[in-house]
Amino acid sequence: MELSKKVSEQKKPKKVYEVYAPPYFGGRWLGSTVADDPSKVLGRVLRTSLYAITDDFTKQYMLMRFKITEVKDSVCNTVFYGHEYGREYLRSLVKRGTNKIEYIFDVTTRDGFVIRVYPVVFTTSRISSSKKRAIRKTMREVLEEAAANLTHDQLAQELVLGKTASDIYNRVKKIVLPRHVGVYKSKIIKLGRIEAAKPVEQEASA
Q: Quick one: average pLDDT of 139-143?
């Protein structure tokens, strides 16, 4: 009897679930995933590019991650779960005779999300250790100030759309003129308070 029950469970038909980006990234269709139970869909992470979400070809180097946090019928809602520069793009930023100053630390948003951030500054020439320390301090100050005043969705937009990089640049240029400033990676360490997803006009997957 127990064996037949297990066989029956294994034959449970699978269903296709459509996955969408959160409203703060346009509610765009991200793809499909298959499972025989909605509980098995929760927690899955989908990857795409910022280009696929914004239709901006210049953003194809930015890779995005979204985590499924809610399933309604066959529709999956997600939250931003991190981003990173593509490897080739990041490699292209490294030049001889210059410095790469990076810093890795966690920030907590106003709604309780803990996000690990990876800001980076590339210089036009080699600089002193004291200037490197000043740049790292500046990067931390900018990101901690932003996180304290923003919810996770607001900070996510600023991280990937360039606002954070611009804020860091404007402060760092008082120390040294940078060649490139950005947040090359982020990842969610702890989820905070997630608001119920508001209905959006979701695109057809076709």
A: 98
Structural tokens at position 149: 């005043």
* Burial group, residue 94, by CB count within 10 angstroms (0-12, 13-18, 19+): exposed
53 with 39: CB under 8 angstroms? no
Biggest distance spanned by C-alpha atoms of the chain: 75
Hey, is 111 helix, strand or coil? coil
CATH number of the domain located at residue range(s) 87-190 in this protein: 3.30.479.30
Strand-pairing partners, residue 67, are: 45, 79
Domain-by-domain residue ranges, the chain? 2-84, 87-190
Verdict on whether the full-model pTM lies above 0.90: no
Report strand pairing: 114-123 vs 100-102: antiparallel
Distance CA 124, CA 97 (A): 8
